[in-house]
Amino acid sequence: MTDYYSTYDLKHVINASGKMTILGVSKVPEAAIQAQQFGDTHFFEMKDLTDKTGDFIAKKLGTEGALVVNSASAGIAEAVAGIIGQGSKYHAYHPFPPRYTKREIILPKGHNVDYGTPEEVMIELGGGQVVEAGYANMCTPEHVEMMINENTAAIFYVKSHHAVQKSMLTIQEALEVAHKHELPLILDAAAEEDLKKYVDMGVDVVLFSGAKAIEGPASGLVFGKERTSAGPSCRVWASVAR
């Protein structure tokens, strides 16, 4: 077996930190390696694979829809694009002429963190315009609510050790503000462990990293409601890949 440490002159690492991106995230278990090997040695109609694996995962989680993407970062862009474009990512990614003007994504200022890239970069990649609420060290439900206007597309919340913890509104409070104004809540929970917790809370769109607690290869998982509290005309992320 090739000694890649020697071949590429790499340091030997003892990981005492856990599932850290800078250390290659998690170890991939044998079951995941076998599934990936099967995928690497067979062909599929990719749309069919995307739809049916998403349906399978959604059923397991007890949610309306799910979608496997390249990474949690990609999931941010996909979710934002799907919400802004009401199911059509093309209108979200190409804003001229501005067919969809509701592009503002409200984010607590203390949640606009850099996890390898700033949250705002991926939101903007999805066609969103970041509006920060509150202060770097404090954000209340009232701070979020005062930023809502006719151009608001969604509220965005980051559940992460990177984000400011003290004096910040809770996920439940953010959800209540969002639904009070018939807006979806997007939750970046990339490194969290409980996949069903936020479904049970009623969060509209949840983003997980496939390579952290799930212990899969580099990937992301987007799941939640196929339609948001904004009503049946607002088809969201589940339609983006279909």
TrEMBL record:
Q: Which UniProt keywords apply?
A: Pyridoxal phosphate, Transferase
InterPro entries attached here? Cys/Met-Metab_PyrdxlP-dep_enz, PyrdxlP-dep_Trfase, PyrdxlP-dep_Trfase_major
Q: Which SUPFAM superfamilies match?
A: PLP-dependent transferases (SSF53383)
Q: Which GO terms describe its biological process?
A: transsulfuration
Has keyword Lyase?
A: no
Q: Is Transferase found in the keyword set?
A: yes
Q: Which family, according to the similarity comment?
A: Belongs to the trans-sulfuration enzymes family.
Which protein, by its recorded name, is this? Selenocysteine synthase (Seryl-tRNASer selenium transferase)
**What's the source species' lineage?**
Bacteria, Bacillati, Bacillota, Bacilli, Lactobacillales
